[in-house]
C-alpha cells in the first residue's frame, strides 16, 4: 500500500500542533482546572540526612484556606511499585517513614483552597529533625577500586594489551550532576470520582505512569486514566513517576476533591531526578600506526541512598570503535542526593565525553589527525556481540562532516589558528552514537463518514513533533491529506503505545500504524461489498483495492472508485475501524541478529579570547546517520536543540551542592546556567544521511531525539585544547580552568 | 510569602509618612517602597524579605522622567525603567557607559520593569542569603555567621570583604554610576538631602545587614549625573560564563579623556568583584596623565587588585578582573 508519489516523508512539514501552541490554545497538564479544585504545596526537608523528630502543623492548620496537611504520621497509605513491572526511579513513596535521605525530600504536603494559601501554610509547618552529616562528596574514586567494579562487557585481555601497548592514554574524566530544566515544571492535576482516578500529568510515558500510579495507590489499573496532551519538554526527567503525582492523587482520593500540585523550580533540582555525577577512567592503547589495541572503561556514577539508578557510561564503548581487547566495568557511589534519572542520551552522553576525549588525546599523542584515527578504527561489525550493524555509516559521517566543516584547513598546532582580532580558533571533533530499536506499539485507526480519519495511540508528543509524524505516516500509507487526519495521543484509553524515551517513538510507530490501517481497510472493503446501497454490492473484498481515499475495483483505476465516506454513508456507518500492533525489535525476525544503532559526527569550532578568558562556540557541523528522517523540520530542530544542550553541558551546566549541608546551591533558573540564545553558535549545520534502516521498519526510521547531544561536549573540549592547550577532563569547562587550572576547591 | 498590606501613594510626602514607621530601612525593614519589584518580590517569595507593608510609589507623578538640567547635569527620576534609561537619547549620547551597563544586565523582561531607584538598592545574589535553609547569614540574620566563607563562593567578592560577609554587590548600573559620580537625591522625614554615590554604599564590616545610608522614611526621588568634560571615552565591559542573563564575574566601567596622548579625567570602577560597586582610585592614579599603553594598564590593574582578598573558589577573579580592566582600557583608548 506504500505509495511513491506525494509522500511528505523526509520533507520539512510544519508541526500540526504549532498553531495550538503559538495561540495558547494548547492545554498543558497544569492548565486543567475543575470546580472545587484544591492546591497542594509540599514541605521540603531542610536537611539532607537524618530523622524527623516532630512535625508541628498547628500554626499552619489555623491559616486561612488550609484544608489538610499530610505527613508520615497521618498520610493515607501508599505502596511501592512492583519491581521490574512499573518503572519508578524513586521507589520509596513519600512519607513512608520518618527518614530523610536527601535535601528537599517531601516531608509534608499542605492542601488549601488557593496556591498562595497552600504555599504560605507550607512555610508555617514546623519540622524538627535529628540531623546527621550528609555524604555529598564529589570524589567518586571509591567506586573505581578493583573490588567494587562490576564487569559489563569484555573481550580479549585488556591488561596484557595495555601493558604492551605502544602509545597509551590513561586518564580520569568527570561529568557533573546536570539537572533537567524544561520550561514546564512537573505538575499533576488529580481527579477522583466513584473509585476512578483521572490524572493530568506531565509525563513522557502515560502507559507506565498509569501502571505505576495504580500500583502505588493500590487500585486496579483500570481505575486509573492518565491524560497528557502537551508537554513543555522533559529531556528524560518526566519519563517516570515522581512523588508529587502520588501526593496529588492520594489527596484527591482522601478529600474527594480535585487537587493540583505544580512543583517549584527548586524541586526540579531535588525531587524529580537529575543526570548523576560520573567519574570515568579510560585506558587506551594503540600501535604506532594508530590501530587501537585496547579500550578499558571503568566508571562510577553517583546514586541515591535507597535506589540503584546509575549512569550507563559504557553504552557505546563496546561497539563504537574496533579493538580486539576491551573491558567495561561499572559501579555506583551512594550520596545523599535525590534519585538520579535518565537525561537525554543517558549513559552514552557522559560516557562518550570520556571515550571521545580519550580518543582525541590518543590522536594527539600519535601525532595523527583525530578524524583519521577514527576512520582507521572503523569496525566491520559490532565487536561486542559479533552481529552485523543493521545500517552503519560512521565513515561517511566523518568524511562528509570534515568536508562541510573545512577540516582539511586545520592546523593541528595548539593556538595556531589566530584571527586578525587576536582570538584563537579551536577545532574539535568527536564521534556519536545512540541505540535504536522498536518497542511494542499498538494503535487504532478509523475511516469516518465525514471524510476524516483518526489514528489513536497511547503514546505522547513531548514537544518533539510526534503528532505530526503520526499524521505524515498515515498520509504516506493512505494517501489521505494531512488536513483530514486526526491524531489522538496522550490518553491511556487509547491502545497502549511507546514511552517517549530512548528516541524510540518514531521508529516504533510505522508497523503498528500500517497494521491498524490494513485492518480498518479490510473492514471498509467488507462494508463495501455488503452494503445494500453500495456500488460494489456483491463483489468480493479481494476484487477491491483502496488508495488515495477511494475504494475501487482492482481492474479499474482508482479514479473510478468511490470515496470511503460514501461507502460508510451508504451503509449508515459512522466508521470502519481497525486495530494494529507491532512487536519489539528483539522479537522481529528482520531485526534479530543485527546490531541497531544511530551514528554521527560532531565538528565544533570555538573562539578563545585569551585576553579576557572568553570562550564561545562559534560553529557546529553535525552529520547524523539516523535512518530515514520522517520530518526534516522537526528532526533538524531536535538535533539543533541537542547541540545547544551539548554546548550547555560542555561549558555551563553543573548542579553544585553545598558539601556541608547537601543542599543544591544554584537551584534556580538564574544560577543554574543553561545556554541562552546569545550563547547559540551563529552556525549550526545539521545533515542527515537518510539511509533507511530496513531492520527498523519498511520506512526505515530510527529516531533522533538524543543522538544530537552525543559527542558535542568532547568535541568542544577537543576544540578548547586545540585553541588554548588546556585539556579539560572535568565538565563543564569554566573560565578558571583556562585561567589557572586546578583552583576549583569543589573539584575532585 | 507572608500577608502584607499594600498602599498606593500619589506623593512623596505620603510615601515617606508611611515608611517613617519602619524601625530600619535596611534588612528587616517592616515597611518597604515598591517600584519595579523585580528584586523585592523575589526575596519576599523566599521569605528573605518579610515586610508587613508595601508602599507602591509607581503612581507618584514626575518620577519617571529623564531631564537635562540647566547646569548641564542629567536628572533621572527614581521610576525610570532600566530599558528606558538605556535608550534615553541623552544617556546614549553622553553617558554611554551607563547605557552599556544597563543593557548588559538581567534580561529584557526584567529591564522593562526594573527602576533606577530599585537598582540602586539591588540586593546580593549570594545563595546563602537567599536560602533560609542556611541558618548562618550575617546579612539576613545579624550575628548568625557566614555560610559562604566556607561554602561555595565562586561568584563572591574579593574586594571589601570581611570575616562576616563576602557577598558581591550584583548591580551593573551602579558600577557605571560610580564612574559618572552620580548624586543620589533623597527626600526624608527631615527634608531633602543629596548623597554622592561614593558615600552611599557601606562596607559589610561587622554589620553586613546595613548596606547603605538610607534611614526609615527615606525615599530616593532621583539621581543626577554631572555634566562630563568634552569628548570623554566610555566603556562597560562585562565578563561572565554565558553570553547573556548572568551576573558579572568581573566587569569594568571606565570614563576618561585622551588629550595629547595622555589619559585625563580617568574614572575606573568594577563590578562583580566588590561587596559594593567598586571605584578604583589606585588604578585612576596609575593611569592619570600617562600614555595609554599596555604596561601602564597592567600597572593600574595590579594596583587596583592589590588589596584583593580572594577565597578558594573565587581566586580566579583576581586575574580575571585584571584582564577585564586591561581589555576595557585597551578598547576604550583605541576607540
Short description:
Chain A has 17 helices and 26 strands. Chain A is an alpha+beta fold and 748 residues long.
Topology:
The complex is a heterodimer of chains A (748) and B (335).
Chain A: H1 18-23, E1 38-44, E2 50-56, H2 58-61, E3 66-71, E4 99-100, E5 106-112, H3 115-124, E6 126-131, E7 150-155, H4 158-163, E8 167-175, E9 187-193, E10 196-201, H5 206-217, E11 224-227, H6 243-255, E12 259-262, H7 265-268, E13 278-286, E14 292-303, H8 317-320, E15 325-334, H9 348-366, H10 370-376, H11 394-405, E16 424-435, E17 441-448, E18 453-456, H12 466-478, E19 485-488, H13 505-530, E20 544-547, E21 550-553, E22 562-563, H14 564-570, E23 575-582, E24 597-609, E25 614-625, H15 632-651, E26 683-688, H16 712-724, H17 735-739
Helix pairs in contact in A: 9-16, 12-13, 15-16
Chain B: E1 5-8, H1 12-19, E2 31-34, H2 40-45, E3 53-56, E4 66-68, E5 74-77, H3 82-87, H4 89-94, H5 96-104, H6 108-113, H7 116-120, H8 127-130, H9 173-179, E6 183-188, E7 191-196, H10 197-200, E8 219-225, E9 233-239, E10 250-259, E11 262-271, E12 278-279, H11 281-287, H12 294-304, H13 317-334
Helix pairs in contact in B: 5-9, 11-12, 12-13
Structural class of chain B: alpha+beta
Low-pLDDT windows of residues of chain A: 1-5, 742-748
Helix content of chain A: 10-25%
Please, how many helices of chain A? 17
- Order of strands, widest sheet of chain B: 4-5-8-6-7
Quaternary = heterodimer
Rough outline of chain B: globular
What's the number of structural domains of chain A?
3
CATH superfamily of the domain at 233-334 in chain B, called what?
CO dehydrogenase flavoprotein, C-terminal domain
The CATH class of the largest domain in chain A is identified as Alpha Beta
The main β sheet of chain B shows up as: 5 strands, antiparallel
Radius of gyration of chain A: 28 Å
Radius of gyration of chain B: 19 Å
CATH class membership of the domain at 233-334 in chain B:
Alpha Beta
Derived from helix and strand composition plus strand pairing, the structural class of chain A reads alpha+beta
Number of strands of chain B: 12
Amino acid at each position: 500500500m506504500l505509495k511513491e508519489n506525494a509522500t511528505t516523508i523526509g520533507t520539512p512539514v510544519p508541526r500540526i500542533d504549532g498553531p495550538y501552541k503559538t495561540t495558547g490554545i494548547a492545554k498543558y497538564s497544569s492548565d486543567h482546572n475543575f470546580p472545587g479544585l484544591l492546591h497542594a504545596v509540599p514541605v521540603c526537608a531542610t536537611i539532607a540526612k537524618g530523622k524527623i523528630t516532630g512535625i508541628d502543623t498547628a500554626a499552619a492548620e489555623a491559616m486561612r484556606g488550609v484544608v489538610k496537611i499530610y505527613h508520615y504520621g497521618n498520610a493515607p497509605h501508599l505502596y511501592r511499585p512492583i519491581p521490574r513491572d512499573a518503572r519508578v526511579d524513586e521507589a520509596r513513596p513519600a512519607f513512608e517513614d520518618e527518614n530523610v535521605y536527601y535535601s528537599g525530600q517531601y516531608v509534608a504536603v499542605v492542601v488549601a483552597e488557593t496556591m498562595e494559601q497552600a504555599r504560605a501554610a507550607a512555610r508555617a509547618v514546623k519540622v524538627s529533625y535529628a540531623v546527621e552529616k550528609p555524604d555529598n562528596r564529589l570524589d567518586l574514586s571509591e567506586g573505581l577500586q578493583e573490588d567494587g567494579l562490576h564487569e559489563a562487557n569484555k573481550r580479549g585481555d585488556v591488561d596484557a594489551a595495555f601493558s604492551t601497548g605502544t602509545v597509551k592514554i590513561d586518564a580520569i574524566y568527570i561529568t557533573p550532576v546536570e539537572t533537567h530544566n524544561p520550561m514546564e515544571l512537573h505538575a499533576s492535576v488529580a481527579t477522583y470520582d466513584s473509585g476512578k482516578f483521572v490524572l493530568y500529568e506531565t509525563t513522557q510515558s502515560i502507559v507506565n505512569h498509569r501502571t505505576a500510579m495504580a500500583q502505588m495507590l493500590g487500585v486496579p489499573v483500570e481505575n486509573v486514566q492518565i491524560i497528557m496532551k502537551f508537554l513543555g519538554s522533559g529531556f528524560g526527567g518526566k519519563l517516570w513517576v515522581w512523588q508529587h503525582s502520588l501526593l496529588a492523587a492520594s489527596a484527591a482520593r482522601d478529600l474527594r476533591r480535585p487537587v493540583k500540585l505544580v512543583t517549584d523550580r527548586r524541586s526540579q533540582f531535588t525531587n524529580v531526578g537529575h543526570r548523576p555525577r560520573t567519574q570515568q577512567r579510560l585506558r587506551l592503547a594503540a600501535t604506532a600506526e594508530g590501530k587501537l589495541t585496547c579500550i578499558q572503561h571503568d566508571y562510577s556514577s553517583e546514586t541515591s541512598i535507597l535506589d540503584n539508578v546509575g549512569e550507563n557510561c559504557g553504552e557505546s564503548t563496546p561497539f563504537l570503535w574496533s579493538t580486539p581487547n576491551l573491558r567495561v566495568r561499572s559501579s555506583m557511589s551512594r550520596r545523599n542526593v535525590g534519585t538520579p534519572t535518565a537525561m537525554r542520551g543517558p549513559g552514552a552522553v557522559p560516557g562518550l565525553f570520556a571515550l571521545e576525549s580519550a580518543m582525541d588525546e590518543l590522536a594527539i599523542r600519535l601525532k595523527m589527525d583525530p578524524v583519521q584515527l577514527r576512520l582507521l578504527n572503523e569496525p566491520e561489525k559490532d565487536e561486542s556481540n559479533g552481529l552485523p550493524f543493521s545500517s552503519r555509516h560512521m565513515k561517511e559521517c566523518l568524511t562528509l562532516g570534515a568536508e562541510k566543516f573545512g577540516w582539511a584547513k586545520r592546523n593541528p598546532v595548539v593556538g595556531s589558528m589566530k584571527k586578525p582580532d587576536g582570538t584563537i580558533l579551536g577545532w574539535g571533533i568527536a564521534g556519536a552514537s545512540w541505540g535504536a530499536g522498536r518497542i511494542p506499539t499498538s494503535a487504532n485507526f478509523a475511516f469516518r463518514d465525514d471524510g476524516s480519519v483518526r489514528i489513536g495511540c497511547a503514546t505522547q508528543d513531548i514537544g518533539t513533533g510526534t503528532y505530526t509524524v503520526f499524521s505524515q505516516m498515515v498520509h504516506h500509507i493512505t494517501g489521505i491529506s494531512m488536513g483530514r487526519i486526526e491524531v489522538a495521543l496522550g490518553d491511556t484509553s487509547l491502545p497502549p503505545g511507546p514511552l517517549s524515551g530512548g528516541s524510540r517513538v518514531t521508529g516504533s510507530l510505522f508497523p503498528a500504524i500500517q497494521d491498524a490501517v490494513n485492518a480498518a481497510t479490510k473492514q471498509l472493503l467488507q462494508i463495501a461489498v455488503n452494503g445494500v446501497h453500495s456500488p460494489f454490492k456483491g463483489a468480493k473484498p479481494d476484487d477491491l483495492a483502496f488508495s488515495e481515499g477511494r475504494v475501487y475495483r482492482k481492474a479499474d483505476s482508482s479514479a473510478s472508485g468511490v470515496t470511503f465516506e460514501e461507502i460508510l454513508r451508504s451503509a449508515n456507518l459512522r466508521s470502519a475501524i481497525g486495530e494494529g500492533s507491532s512487536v519489539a525489535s528483539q522479537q522481529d525476525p528482520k531485526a534479530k541478529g543485527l546490531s541497531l544503532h544511530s551514528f554521527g559526527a560532531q565538528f565544533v569550532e570555538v573562539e578563545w579570547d585569551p585576553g579576557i578568558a572568553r570562550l564561545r562556540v562559534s560553529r557546529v557541523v553535525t552529520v547524523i546517520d539516523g535512518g530515514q528522517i520522517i520530518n526534516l523540520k522537526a528532526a533538524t530542530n531536535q538535533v539543533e536543540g541537542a547541540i545547544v544542550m551539548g554546548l550547555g553541558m560542555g561549558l555551563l551546566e553543573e548542579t553544585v551542592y553545598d558539601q556541608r549541608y547537601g543542599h543544591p546551591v544554584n537551584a534556580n533558573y538564574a544560577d543554574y546556567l543553561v545556554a541562552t540564545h546569545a550563547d547559540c553558535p551563529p552556525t549550526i549545520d545539521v545533515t542527515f544521511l537518510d539511509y533507511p534502516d530496513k531492520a527498523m521498519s519498511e520506512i526505515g526510521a530510527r529516531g533522533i531525539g538524543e543522538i544530537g547531544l552525543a559527542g558535542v561536549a568532547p568535541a568542544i573540549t577537543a576544540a578548547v585544547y586545540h585553541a588554548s592547550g588546556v585539556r579539560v577532563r572535568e565538565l563543564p569547562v569554566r573560565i578558571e580552568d583556562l585561567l589557572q587550572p586546578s583552583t576549583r576547591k569543589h573539584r575532585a | 510569602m507572608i500577608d502584607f498590606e499594600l498602599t498606593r501613594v500619589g506623593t512623596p510626602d505620603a510615601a515617606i509618612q508611611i515608611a517613617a514607621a519602619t524601625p530600619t530601612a535596611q534588612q528587616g525593614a517592616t515597611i518597604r517602597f515598591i517600584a519595579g519589584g523585580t528584586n523585592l518580590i523575589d526575596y519576599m517569595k523566599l521569605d528573605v524579605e518579610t515586610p508587613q507593608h508595601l508602599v507602591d510609589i509607581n503612581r507618584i507623578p514626575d518620577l519617571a522622567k529623564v531631564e537635562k538640567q540647566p547646569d548641564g547635569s542629567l536628572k533621572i527620576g527614581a521610576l525610570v525603567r532600566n530599558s528606558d534609561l538605556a535608550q534615553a537619547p541623552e544617556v546614549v549620547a553622553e553617558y554611554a557607559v551607563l547605557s552599556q551597563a544597563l543593557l548588559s544586565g538581567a534580561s529584557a523582561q526584567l529591564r522593562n520593569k526594573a527602576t533606577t531607584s530599585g537598582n540602586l538598592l539591588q540586593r546580593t545574589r549570594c545563595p546563602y542569603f537567599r536560602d533560609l535553609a542556611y541558618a548562618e547569614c550575617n546579612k539576613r540574620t545579624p550575628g548568625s555567621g557566614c555560610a559562604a566563607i566556607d561554602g561555595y563562593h565562586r561568584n563572591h567578592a574579593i574586594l571589601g570583604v570581611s570575616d562576616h560577609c563576602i557577598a558581591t554587590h550584583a548591580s551593573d548600573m551602579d558600577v557605571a554610576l560610580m564612574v559618572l559620580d552620580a548624586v543620589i537625591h533623597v527626600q526624608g522625614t527631615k527634608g531633602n538631602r543629596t548623597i554622592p554615590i561614593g558615600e552611599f554604599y557601606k562596607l559589610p564590616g561587622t554589620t553586613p545587614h546595613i548596606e547603605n545610608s538610607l534611614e526609615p522614611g527615606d525615599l530616593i526621588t532621583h539621581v543626577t549625573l554631572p555634566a562630563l568634560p568634552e569628548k570623554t571615552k566610555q566603556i562597560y565591559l562585562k565578563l561572565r560564563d554565558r553570553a547573556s542573563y548572568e551576573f558579572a564575574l568581573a566587569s569594568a566601567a571606565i570614563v576618561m579623556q585622551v588629550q595629547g596622548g595622555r589619559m585625563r579625567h580617568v574614572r575606573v570602577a568594577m563590578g562583580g568583584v566588590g561587596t559594593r560597586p567598586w571605584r578604583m582610585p589606585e588604578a585612576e592614579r596609575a593611569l592619570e596623565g600617562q600614555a595609554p599603553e599596555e604596561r601602564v594598564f597592567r600597572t593600574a590593574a595590579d594596583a587596583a587588585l592589590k588589596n584583593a582578598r580572594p577565597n578558594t573558589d573565587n581566586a580566579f577573579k583576581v586575574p580575571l578582573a585584571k584582564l577585564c580592566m586591561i581589555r576595557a582600557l585597551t578598547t576604550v583608548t583605541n576607540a
